[in-house]
Amino acid sequence: MTSIDKNPVAPRVIVREAAAPRPRWQVWLIRPEVVTLLLLVIAAIVATRLSPFFADLGFILESSTYYIEFAIVALVLTIVIISGEIDLSPAAQMALSACLFGTAFKAGAPIPVAMGVSLLSGLVMGAFNGFFVTVLRLPSIIVTIGTLILYRGLAQVLAGDKSISGFPGWFVGIDYRMVGIVPVPVLVFIAASILLGLFLGITIYGRQIYQIGTSEIAAIHAGIRVRRIKMGLFIASGLTSSIAGLMVASRLGSVRYDLATGGELTMVLIVMLGGTYIFGGRGSILGTFLAAWLLVIIATGMTVANIAINAQLTIMGLLLIVSIIATNAIYARSQR
Amino acid sequence: MTVSAPLVSARGISKSFGGVEVLRNVDLDLMPGEVHALLGENGAGKSTFAKILAGVHRPTRGTIELGGKPVEIASPIAAQRLGITLIHQEPISFPDLSVAENLVIGQVGAKPLGRVRWAELAKEARRLMGLLNVPIDVTVPMRGLSIADQQMVEIARALASDSRLIIMDEPTAALTPKEVETLFKIVRRLREEGRTIIFISHRLEEVRAICDRVTIFRDGDKIETATTASLTDADIIRRMIGRPVADYLHRGTSHVGEVALSVRALTLPGRFENISFDIRKGEIVGLGGLVGAGRTDVARAIFGVAPATSGVIEIDGKPVTINEPTDAIGLGIALVSEDRAIAGIFRTLPVETNITAAVPKRIAPKGIIRRTVEKALAKESVEKLSIRLASVRQPIGELSGGNQQKAILARWLLAEPDILILDEPTRGIDIGVKAEFYDMIGELAAGGRAILLISSELPELLALSDRILVMSEGKLTADIPRAEASQETIMHAAVPRSGRHTVSGAAA
Amino acid sequence: MSEIARLFRAREAGILVMLVLFVAVVSLIQPRFFSTETLRIVLLAVPLILVAAMGQMMVLVARHVDLSIGSILGFSAIAAGMVFRDHPELPLFVGFAVGVLSGAALGFVNGLVVTVFKLPSIIVTLGTLSLYRGLLFILSGSKQIDPNDIPEPLIRMAQTSPIDIPWIVIIAFGVAFATWLFLTYSQIGRQIYAIGSNPVAAPLRGIRVMPVTILVFTLSGALAGLAGLIYAARFGYVNPGITGVGFEFTVIAAVVIGGVSINGGVGSVLGTVLGVLLLGSVQVALPILGVSGFWQNAIYGGIILIALVIDRTVRQGGLRGLLARGGA
To answer: What is the DSSP track for C137-202?
Structure first.
């Protein structure tokens, strides 16, 4: 990097032309994804010391299937948050779309048709969120709390408190289908990460999403179709949620209205751990990808260490708060 | 203390924002019981000076004495404690609280656990509003009040806190002539009570009617303090604009072609009304006026950010519909916005991203960004506009204001617009870079583009424009051919003459 | 009085009309709904929500939101229940003190994190929702407080009192009255409205935003703690995995129906009380109408969305304003 180009102008002027750029290593080190990677490495080392299970990649991959559906939705949520919005309703969307799938199946629809119904519902739910946010211009944070209750409530209406099961064998057990040692859901997650990472990283839409999240007003002035893009993101979130809901249905072999309860926390946690900025404009799919594995190791580690699932909530909540504080602090430092 | 001792005496007050000095070494004494006008063009430093007294800004250098004792005015609250109240142009209020509460909330000496005595509060509020002789129901929420009424509440608030120094920043901008009269009565009474009032206004009759002395600012310097009676209007205007114009030469007349943009009876209620004008290819049309005259609103309407409710926009003779900026860009219009920090740059994103933001089709014809094309376009722009930076990957926030502005201009040049609207393109930019901008604007016009140049700097308008439109209070008040344009003619059309009654539609 | 001022007054009247209409319609369909028995059931259902709603209302007025109250309720109920179980010799008020103070402490933490780090309260309290629930599992060792561990006098509070109205009802309406006094007649109460109404102007007017905001979260926590005791009294047990789960949504729905704006600055105790009563009536009416109780949450969600749109419409000056294109 060259030093700044001093400009010999009128003597009264003492304006700097441009600040010196930061050294490369600093730019890299203050990226939150790097922090996530470091934490991941540390967690992996600590875990392998604690239990030999963790040295076994197969074990980690297998354990990951409990979280991978949330991780897949978290990828889309990352993009939503980068655009300056938030969606708290995906877990409820997973439940409702899965219950619709179950109900359609029970009503005699063939599995592919039932799956179509489920995917369509995801589309509609996402568009419904998007309508409130982009057309009525209400804050997404409160709208999606409303729809989170609504969607979960509708799932309850549909399925009551009974589970729906009896799906054919070929549909059940997606987490036991392997490609090599990799379970299919994990493969879906990896593929989705690559696709969405490319979408955000090299397409014009990805670029514009960062611009919207950085300054919505400037984006409007630059002719970016902000509302259309945001609508698209909410729809994508709904669609992905319904896919994730179907994956849970396959993994459990049954659906209930309380499927994916508390998932909103897990998803927001993964995104925040991955270093995405809660106020928009910054973040990456890579960070979320790494954070998902970090969460898998932490959660599995706690289970191996015999910490009750319920008590793990403490750690999850604490992690969420600490990660937002840390991410905010990192960005505040790099902001001039 | 004798009667002639000043209430406030400021010495050597200077203020810089980010390296740019906006106020230089100002000395000023304010007497008890005087109404003192601060005058000057936009950006002359008068508001900055007032805000320093009110604790909004802290001076870079200089001392302030209040009643003979040196004071530090560290915050608006500290100012209030010292008996200084600033009445903002846009009143600050709590829209959901009642008028009475807005009068007292946060008042000095109120105990946090103290009880709110509603009956007494309402009585006191009615008394204060009674003093001002304005019939406002003090129990209704602030939300429902007009701007004028809100302003009255602010003034009542100053009375309630028994301020010694009351600063009014363009208090009459939103008032009707009758309300102005009421305000003046109050100001006179405050003067009789021995309070000091700073009165910031662009309306010379008002200054003449109410102010004992005036202080004129220009480019951050105090030019003169004198009794109002000793100066004529012409004297005042000359001192406000008395800058040598010789810095820039007039641009040679370029070839002016067909009408490119034509606006007819454009109206957005509350902002501007009945605006009509044409801009031809190769022509630079200046749009002058005071801040708040509605110039920016017209630009935003043409560009589709906040469209007008009625009126017609024609491009190359064909009427067009512009609902959002995307439409405008498609029609070959570009807007370099006045508010660079909010509506222009993406602060944390790289310079190259900022430059290519308006041409997605050029950098990503099939949806995927071609980094080499993008980099080449960015580098080309950087070279052409000689933007000074370390790397095109650098966040644009790290550049100086002038170079940020060049990058924004570069963004719009890449879009190859036929019509270019420049809203205060050289605000906050140092003189060396300004000259470069003037050259570029001239070249753009010579290349056949139609340019609408909004500027508060008269020399800039005069040097660049083929024709100068002037707006005042939402209306077009003059269309001055270049040969007849002077700082005086522009100022005379820009300064509101009598209340809301302005000569309208010189160009209609 | 201006048009808009009237609209604001109309909020409470509107909710009252909705409540009356709802009762009338349900009574027409199913006459046995209109009875003192129903009134008794509604009044018993209401205290739990009402107490917590007072806290949530203050939080919303200050332009924040508290999602953690369900977990705080559970935590305080467990903490108080453990005092009752392990130290039956202590007087009842010790348990009350433990419940309310533990709630206040957890609320204080919420307020502190939100104000010190300047983070959105919705995300912070989503975190503490989980954090506090986890803590309560650890505290209780995942064990339920059984009915025979809940002291008899506490259970009786949910049944009767010297004046024949159950104590918990009296407490709940007492809390509502105290909140009304606080918000209407104290300087701090008015400052809460000021902060929510214009957060930027508040410090310029000399209002100490941080302590007031922390106080609001602390009060919300304390009231959720009190609600925990009401829960123990009414249901006679406390279960770490059940008590208070999803409670925050019920309360937010009640408060929003009560005309409290999510944009801060607007909200009244009267409106919130009416909102809680309406919600309580819906809860009671569903089984009487033969509608599955499973509809409850869907209805809450729908109500929140409708209330959002109404609030927006009022603020934007009618439907035209709502759908009009906005400038940047």
So the answer is: HHHHTT--B-GGGS-HHHHHHTT--TTSS-HHHHHHHHHHHHHHHHHHHBHHHHHHHHHHH-TTHH
